[in-house]
Write a structure and sequence with these properties.
The chain is mostly helical and 295 residues long. It has 12 helices and 5 strands. Helix 5 packs parallel to helix 9.
Length: 295
């Protein structure tokens, strides 16, 4: 393996990633200055942010899997940048909400019992919505396609201008039934988690509630007490990202399930050397292509 296949941290991180990282850490450290004794609620934005950073790095460095003249647009996970941006946005909102709760407990502790119920509902909603939001328009971007634009044509040095000035063909996209399964499944999970969480909060109002006693930075100020968080929070923390990973893997497998005959039919109008380049890149991108295509 050549040295260019080894990615340094400098290559993985671009300016946008660094700016997002700095902003997140700044807000996170501001929350730490409030001296939280329990980090449970901090785990939620950390998971959302970590998930977004991984996908952002995949999107930024995905081109390294292909040769420079490759006409393949390989997006089996959809638009990693859009998914990453949505999760990052929700992680920032979670940090702002967390800072707001800490500040309220310090400056208006007499109101914290009322605010805490609204906060828990809103906090869980924001966290779970991020994992539903990323699948709303997955079908638009999850695909493998061949695309030549003017610069690609000049770079390849073959005359395909006679075929089309711009050639764009989809080799594989997310099947409609699978997209419905993913979108409906993510919607059901999103609604179910929030409805169950609200049910526990209503139980708390009725006095029949067992949960986690959570000490806030201002607990004890003006004789204010801690808040109680449903034990269901652990299910929410784990289930939302776990199911999202499962849905993304499902999408990845569906997109990469390309019929050999379909590929050859689509690339047939192209010159032989371009067909060879496409097939070579497809084989490099995925083991399934190497097994299915005998070219």
């Amino acid at each position: 393996m050549s040295e260019e296949n080894y990615l340094t941290l400098r290559k993985l991180l671009n300016e946008n990633l660094l700016m997002e990282l700095i902003l997140f850490l700044l807000l996170f450290f501001l929350i730490l200055t409030q001296e939280w004794s329990n980090i449970l609620l901090m785990i939620l934005p950390l998971i959302s942010f970590g998930f977004s950073m991984v996908l952002e790095m995949i999107g930024v460095n995905k081109w390294r899997l292909q040769s420079k003249d490759s006409p393949i647009r390989y997006n089996p996970l959809g638009s990693e940048k859009k998914i990453a941006s949505r999760l990052y946005y929700t992680s920032i909102i979670q940090l702002v909400l967390l800072f707001w709760l800490g500040a309220e407990s310090l400056y208006r502790p007499q109101m914290i019992n009322f605010y805490s119920l609204i906060f828990i509902s809103l906090y869980v909603f924001t966290y779970t919505f991020g994992y539903y939001w990323i699948f709303i328009d997955l079908w638009k971007y999850a695909k493998i396609s061949i695309m030549f634009n003017q610069s690609d044509i000049e770079g390849i040095n073959v005359d395909i201008k006679s075929i089309k000035k711009e050639y764009n063909q989809v080799l594989s996209d997310l099947k409609l039934k699978n997209f419905k399964l993913i979108s409906i499944g993510s919607l059901i999970v999103f609604l179910a988690l929030n409805l169950i969480n609200i049910s526990f909060i209503l139980m708390q109002l009725g006095g029949n509630f067992i949960g986690i006693v959570f000490v806030l930075p201002g607990t004890g100020v003006e004789s204010s007490g801690p808040i109680t968080i449903p034990l269901f929070i652990f299910v929410i923390i784990i289930l939302s990202p776990l199911l999202s990973i499962i849905f993304l893997i499902f999408s990845y497998k569906d997109i990469n399930n390309i019929n050999n005959k379909t590929i050859h039919k689509i690339i047939a109008p192209l010159p032989e050397d371009v067909q060879t380049t496409i097939i070579k890149n497809l084989k490099f991108l995925n083991k399934k292509f190497r097994e299915a295509m005998n070219v």
